[in-house]
Amino acid sequence: MVLVNENYLKLQKNYLFSDIARKTRDFIAANPKAPIIKLGIGDTTLPLPPTVIKAFHDAVDEMADATTFRGYGPEQGYAFLRELIVEHEYRTRGVSIQIDEIFISDGSKCDTGNILDIFGRNTIAISDPSYPVYVDTNVMAGNAGDPTNHGQYSNIVYLPCNESNLFKPEIPAFHVDLIYLCSPNNPTGTALNYGEMKSWVDYALRENAIILFDAAYERFITEDQIPHSIYEIPEAQKVAIEFRSFSKTAGFTGTRCAFTVVPKDLLGFDSNQKNFSIHALWNRRHCTKFNGVSYPVQKAIAAIYSQKGSEEILRNIQYYQHNAQIIRDGLNKAGLEFYGGINSPYIWVKSPQDKSSWELFDLFLHQMHIIGTPGSGFGPNGEGYFRLTAFGSQKDTQCAIERIQNYDFNA
Amino acid sequence: MVLVNENYLKLQKNYLFSDIARKTRDFIAANPKAPIIKLGIGDTTLPLPPTVIKAFHDAVDEMADATTFRGYGPEQGYAFLRELIVEHEYRTRGVSIQIDEIFISDGSKCDTGNILDIFGRNTIAISDPSYPVYVDTNVMAGNAGDPTNHGQYSNIVYLPCNESNLFKPEIPAFHVDLIYLCSPNNPTGTALNYGEMKSWVDYALRENAIILFDAAYERFITEDQIPHSIYEIPEAQKVAIEFRSFSKTAGFTGTRCAFTVVPKDLLGFDSNQKNFSIHALWNRRHCTKFNGVSYPVQKAIAAIYSQKGSEEILRNIQYYQHNAQIIRDGLNKAGLEFYGGINSPYIWVKSPQDKSSWELFDLFLHQMHIIGTPGSGFGPNGEGYFRLTAFGSQKDTQCAIERIQNYDFNA
């Protein structure tokens, strides 16, 4: 008789996106001509830029010729890409990362989930609301304890992010081991400034904790005081792992590439308090359970570090940033309260008249034919909020905003 | 203080490929003109065929256009690919698999490792010798117990594969929960026939066990009595997960694609003997920790199911099969004993004169300038064997074989 991982049985069914899909489907069935605009999911819509496409094609052609064909590559990624990352993402910001501290992968979703493989039973702190993968993977790993009756888990230390703290997680007054930080944040769209991030690094140094820093939306930062990497904070390499997705940076949501930085200074401990290199453990995990990212994909993403490639992806980011500005302006005119959208593609809208997230979802869908994401899907502290994203087309975004402005929320 | 996964600390350092690389490097440094031929690693060398390349390019072009751009796809893979797999890998063999029982991934290495996520503490049976990932991932998961002083682990049930059983694992006389079977086998090159596979399925049905069936080398099968899928055995869908890599099938070692079949009939149990769908657990794992395979890669591999594509990959397989035949003929002429090479790209050479695997490695490198893989690297029962592969060029393979034939092993 095969025993299943009983931690999985504690997972709460995540109906967020399936419920959105079902409600949308039902509405369209009843209203087949309704001009639905989707501003819900955080998925890019602009095509890959020409320089990336050219590099992608060139690499595919290499695979067509025996003299340039590539079989198994290094599990950790090709040196050509890791070197470009070290140079352009770090050295230019005054941060010194070694090439072999960079691990190329097929996505930060995988890495943020898989990283728990190398850790034992620890106290985990996670912002609420947050990207659901953080909680779910801790449930799977047995770190979460039991579900509570308000949609949380007994052993997770939740860091509430709400209006009173401007959606910035507060440093706990007690010890935790692993801390998930996502800045700029999904779903709230807010970002930690240098001082706030330094407080977290200081806490981790003091407490021998490790920060799992998810910087998936780094390219959307516009303000100077927001660090692009946690390693801009001194000594952060002793206490932080950084996850960097190319999904939003370069429109790679469907092409799949990311990297994770695991500094060699990071230490974990066994139960006898003997220390071990986290880098060595992750390297072993990566080489044992992963076989590298597709060569043409690595060549394609490397092209964003060329002069032309970087200009092209910047233009795409600016297009989305302009959408965010359109949404912000429109919500202001509509008299709705919101957060985010400055250093982030996400706008976190506060429900008017104390409506619940799902009530606002229904209102937007039925009255304005706009699909957003109910904030409660990201955790109990997301209740009463609604996430809009800047990843639509400019035309759709403009049109959606006009509908919002024309709707009388006080009716 | 962050606790590491202490199971990782029980991993034995795997020096196999790094030792091979170091010895090779040292030899080349001392003998820069030695005409080294590599018949060691199981990596393909023929380029991707034209039909695959064309589909790859076409999909990259789709990513260049906003109207055809693909962002996040289904985590489980696109329906177009899953339907082709169901049709061409199963329906044509009389096996009925549902589309949503197919999970597309970036590699069987990942899947055979990650599958343990959904299982609890079970008794694990693994062939010896075997692909090292099976053992290592069980060590990481805490299933293996402690290292023994002869290179094994205390809690793993090893199924010795040696000359006396023609390298076919024997069914244990007691209960085990999870059984790794790889046929055609890496590293021994042997394959289970219908009756042998049926015995395993019968055992699993009887014992409520689950077989983890790795069919990475399926395309190399030439003999009629060797099943291409474990699901050719009646009722196997109640007891088997099948891993199917495209690495050797289509030269995707560097392009990365595979699929895993998790039938809905498969059941696991909690500690109260309540049953749970393994399919549902894996689906949850796959959707939580994985974000789908790169769209162009999925389009590229789908092309192997076209008429032209299937002919092209068949020609590549035949090229490698011809190499295997060259090696077999040559070893016969050289008077060396060996196994495999008929339904497999691997030839498992028995060391003459009771040489150890590493002694034979050194002999081949120093005397014949041929690199193979020491069998002992795959487990203690691999000691005294040496793995050659058919993935080299025909010219190199021919040349290597001439050197072997000209070498006097009795000298």
Topology overview:
The structure is a homodimer of 411-residue chains.
Chain A: H1 16-30, E1 37-38, H2 50-63, H3 79-90, E2 102-105, H4 108-114, E3 124-128, H5 132-140, E4 156-160, E5 178-182, H6 194-207, E6 210-214, E7 240-245, H7 247-250, E8 258-261, E9 267-269, E10 275-277, H8 278-289, H9 295-302, H10 307-334, E11 338-340, E12 346-350, H11 357-368, E13 370-371, E14 373-374, E15 385-389, H12 394-406
Parallel strand pairs in A: 1-13, 3-4, 3-5, 5-6, 6-7
Antiparallel strand pairs in A: 2-8, 7-8, 9-10, 11-12, 12-15, 14-15
Helix pairs in contact in A: 2-9, 3-9, 4-5, 10-12
Plain-language structure description:
Two copies of one chain form a homodimer. Chain A starts with 15 loop residues before the first helix and ends in a 5-residue tail after the last helix. Chain A has helices at 16-30, 50-63, 79-90, 108-114, 132-140, 194-207, 247-250, 278-289, 295-302, 307-334, 357-368, 394-406, and strands at 37-38, 102-105, 124-128, 156-160, 178-182, 210-214, 240-245, 258-261, 267-269, 275-277, 338-340, 346-350, 370-371, 373-374, 385-389. Helix content of chain A is 36%, strand content 14%. The longest helix of chain A is centred in the C-terminal third of the chain and has 28 residues, at 307-334. In chain A, helix 4 runs parallel beside helix 5 (132-140). Chain A is globular, with a radius of gyration of 22 Å. The first copy, chain A, folds into two domains: 7-47 and 308-406, Aspartate Aminotransferase, domain 1, CATH 3.90.1150.10; 52-305, 3-Layer(aba) Sandwich (Aspartate Aminotransferase, domain 2). The first copy, chain A, is of the alpha/beta class and 411 residues long. At the A-B interface, helix 2, helix 4, helix 5, strand 9 and helix 8 of A face helix 2, helix 4, helix 5, strand 9 and helix 8 of B.
